[in-house]
Amino acid sequence: MPRFLFRRILGALVILLIISAITFGLFYAVPRDPAMMSCGKNCTPEALAQVRQNLGIDSPVPVQYWHWLVGVFTGRDYASYGYCAAPCLGYSFANREPVLGTILDRLPTTLSLAFGAAIVFLILGIGAGMLAAVKQGKFTDKFASAASLFGSSLQIYFFGYIAMFFMVTKLDLFAQPSYTPLTEDPVAWFSGLLLPWFVLAIIFTANYTRMTRSQLVEELSEDYVRTARAKGLSRANVFFRFAWRGAMGPIVTVFGIDLGQLIGGAIITETTFSMQGIGRLVVDATIKSDLPMVLGVTVLAAGAIVFMNIIVDAVYALIDPRIRLA
């Protein structure tokens, strides 16, 4: 396991290096003035000259990237703006603050939204899929399949507003969606995120219901499962000891990717409920052409997906004893 983790972490660093280089090149090598875009709307000639100096756009793009990369590990000094301590992902000239500081300020909102929604759609999706597989061909199976098809057809920006109108405004069943730090008020944190959790989870719940059902139906028809049943093992024992574990591999893989993407920012959900998370941050940065901020969020999102894939590979060994991580 230690050797496996070392190799995967080393590979992840290489992948992040490649992604950051490609992203940097796309943003800074395009035929437009990144200094003018980073300077903002109310840009004066003095501020524009200062931004050009800080960005180092007079240097070749590889040299610019090298300066950015060194700043990630050692920090970087920005003229007239101050020192950006390591790890420095750049300086947002639109917000007049380091990129990493802004990301860390928005990250708790996104993490709360992502992990809360993940718990909801795992419980509902896998539970409904298991029930549909056990009741294959019966009314419960058909109802779960129809509900999952309906859920996957919904769009968050549509369903979110409908849910707020009825559940918050009309029926007063949920609190107004908002984010309160967990350490300040756990009750307000939970109540403010409850409706966004369910709205975000409904799309994923439909996908996990269909996936769980199809995987379990396939596993239940395998020879080793039928053999175990013929040997006298109870139906529940066969289901959870053999079929369940065999079906979890693809589900764990997809979950790792989904959670990594959510950590990178649930853009539509955060915008629908006016929550200031990573997704909303990157939308605002794109509108403002804040290239350093977009680059920082891109690296963060890529890192989240790569990290979750490492965890998924390690969990495989726990789910399936046939897998050995060298």
Written overview of the protein:
With 326 residues, the protein is mostly helical. The chain folds into two domains: 2-98, no CATH class; 100-319, MetI-like fold (Orthogonal Bundle), CATH 1.10.3720. The protein has 13 helices and four strands. The chain has helices at residues 2-28, 34-39, 45-55, 61-74, 99-134, 139-153, 156-170, 186-220, 223-230, 235-263, 267-272, 278-287, 291-319; strands spanning 76-78, 82-84, 91-92, 97-98. The strands form two sheets. The protein has a two-stranded antiparallel sheet. A hairpin with a 3-residue loop joins strand 1 and strand 2 (82-84). It is globular.
Key attributes of the depicted protein:
two-stranded antiparallel ribbon, mainly alpha, two-stranded antiparallel sheet
Please give a quick description of this structure.
The chain is mostly helical and 326 residues long.
Strand order of the largest sheet: 1-2
Radius of gyration: 24 Å
Classified by CATH, the class of the largest domain is: Mainly Alpha
Strand fraction band?
Answer: under 5%
Question: Mean pLDDT, as a whole number?
Answer: 83
Q: What is the name of the CATH architecture of the largest domain?
A: Orthogonal Bundle
Question: Can you tell me the number of structural domains?
Answer: 2
Count up the helices. 13
